[in-house]
Amino acid sequence: MRDHLSGGIFTESEESADCFQLAVALKNILQQRGVTFRFNTTVRQLAADSNRKVSVQTTAGEHLTPDHIVVALACESTALLKPLGIAVPVSPLKGYSLTVPIERAADAPMVSITDYERKVVYARLGERLRIAGMADMVGLNRRIDTSRIEALKQEARNLFPDAGNYDLATLWTGLRPATPKGKPIIDGTRYGNLWLNIGQGALGFTLAPGSASVISHLLRGQALPFGKNVFTLADA
Q1: Each residue of 55-109: pLDDT tens digit?
Q2: What percent of the chain has pLDDT over 70?
Q3: Residue 219 half-sphere exposure, CB side, CA atoms within 13 Å?
Q4: DSSP bridge partners of 215
Q5: What is the DSSP string of 71-132?
Q6: How far apart are CA 9 and CA 113, in angstroms?
Q7: What protein family is recorded (predicted)?
Q8: Can you tell me the distance from the alpha carbon of 57 to that of 48, in angstroms, rounded to the nearest whole number?
Q9: pLDDT at 26 over 70
Q10: 82 and 129 share one domain
């Protein structure tokens, strides 16, 4: 790998983590505190009454009118909000990742590495190596394109050929909710109980704690720690 590099930037404070494991742990903690999750339930639509209060209709036949609704549905937010007259400039950028079991620990990176030239990220997750990249504009298509997977594998093999067996990789593809300026949209709407927390792009896990802090301040009518909200829909 040394022969391929001319230099790099090391950020000592940077860390990587498994967002799925964190989400499961957080779910368990919240359930212990009385939070109810409705899994395998789809929101059919949002409907507003004459008082500009929004209700949620689900495939389970529920008609819910909560105190607050936070729309955090990434690229799916666009279609859900459209009937309410809310247009959000969120577009899907399709990305891919491989998660490879590490076979030779000494030949795998110990820290997260970003190849800015090729736009590929390598993250060590315990005994696994995750490689992520690509940005395809193909709408809401979630089909795994094998040619893109092979290109990602080849990039990884070029840098870390002996780290693991890339043919045993777990494959994933997903849609990053991108905005024109690259900033998330964390804001209220003209409906009193409807809020937006979308558009975090490829940094959903990274920006999740900060986004949660912003939306919680807005929900409670509290001033933001950094002053004016710079994540408004109007400035997206």
Answers
A1: 999 999 999 999 999 999 999 999 999 999 999 999 999 999 999 999 999 999 9
A2: 99
A3: 17
A4: none
A5: E--GGGHHHHHGGGT-----EEEEEEEEEEEBS-GGGS-SS-EEETTTTEEEEEETTEEEEE
A6: 10
A7: Belongs to the DadA oxidoreductase family.
A8: 11
A9: yes
A10: no
Neighbours of 32 (CB within 10 A): 8
Residue 198 within any structural domain of the chain:
yes
Whether residue 42 is contained in a domain is answered as: no
CA 23 to chain CA centroid, Å, is 12
Domain count within the chain: 2
Say if residue 39's pLDDT is above 90: yes
- What is the DSSP-derived secondary structure letter of residue 148? H
Q: Which residues contact 46 (CB under 8 A, 6 or more apart)?
A: 54, 55, 56, 57, 69, 71, 80, 81, 83, 84, 194
- DSSP label at residue 190: S
Task: Assign 149 to helix, strand or coil.
Answer: helix
Q: Where are the alpha helices (DSSP H) in the chain?
A: 19-32, 77-81, 146-159, 204-219
- Whole-angstrom Cα distance, residue 167 to residue 180? 36
196 near 152, Cβ under 8 Å?
no
Angle at 94 between CA 93 and CA 97, to 5 degrees: 130
Can you tell me the mean pLDDT for 144-155? 95
Q: Hunting for tokens 């809020």 — which residue is that? A: 195
Give the domain CATH number at 167.
3.30.9.10
Tokens at residue 233, please?
């829909």
pTM to 2 decimal places: 0.89
